[in-house]
Amino acid sequence: MIQLVADGxxxxxxxxxxxxxxxxxxxxxxxxAAAELLDxxxxxxxxxxxxxxxxRAGQVDPTTISRWHKAGVxxxxxxxxxxxxxxxxxxxxxVVIGSANASARSRNLLREAAxxxxxxxxxxxxxxxxxxxxxxxxxxxxxxLKRAREIYRPPAHVPAQRRAAPQPRRLWIGIGxxxxxPVPPKAAAARENLEQRYGRGVVDSWLMNPGDERAVRPGDExxxxxxxxxxxxxxxxxxxxxxxxxxxVVLDGRRPTALLVWPQGAEDGLEPRTYExxxxxxxxxxxxxxxxxxxxxxxxxxxAIRTLWGQRAARSARH
Length: 319
Description:
By secondary structure, the protein is an alpha+beta fold. It contains 10 helices and 16 strands. The strands form 3 sheets. The chain has an 8-stranded mixed β-sheet with strand order 1-7-6-5-2-3-4-8, sandwiched between helices. Strands 10-14-13-11-9-16 form a 6-stranded mixed β-sheet, with helices on one face. The chain has a two-stranded antiparallel sheet with strand order 12-15. Strand 13 and strand 14 (256-261) form a beta hairpin. Helix 9 packs antiparallel against helix 10. The longest helix is centred in the middle third of the chain and has 17 residues, at 120-136. The radius of gyration is 25 Å and the shape is elongated. Mean pLDDT is 86; it is low at 312-319.
């Protein structure tokens, strides 16, 4: 297994970091939130950059280091460390390699990414590199803690707004064909990766027409009208599904596939509406459905379509 954990990186790693495993890590920046994020206990080990320069820049929080030290964690300092990687060893072994510092800013504001994998070869290489850095580092003791408290300067506060959720750019009305043709292999693999990230039951595939990959883009919304297996025009009682976000567009052979992520709650009862209800909603605001052109995301027509479900469904998508 190899998985990219992006944007909500710390949230995506919670189940692994808070499991009953032995953790060994090398993370340069340690903020006050690191104790909560990493959940280190007595048998764990972490290497940080505990140099005077890092302390004066507010990059290593002495209170967090002291807490780990008292708990029996093997905390060590290695100047000029800039790595962010974690080795998790329990019933199974995983490693995390990425950009994320152990800080509230990283968790709440920054767009981070990390690779999570159980690949045996890479796990062994990470373990070996941690052994090297352990041997090159110095253990943190009471002398270090006393000096750290004296020279530490909290990082300067940088005003920043909480990262906003991506807003859909356009809303398409598409025809979903109940066709037994299997999803192409490349698209099926991409769908599996999305299901690992978002969960089963909230990812769907939309088999599009050749050339649609140049028009439909990740971040767009799609409302699918189910038209049966023979590609006929939808009937007034044809079901339509809640708006979903296009997560990826995959071209595998002649037919492109859009991979859709349904909004939070769709798997728990955002009921389908009918094509007739869709037509009525569009007509009430003076709109007209064009299968080849999307509605602007903030247009009255797009908003009228979303309100069929009593909410701006796709804007709460897990994206």
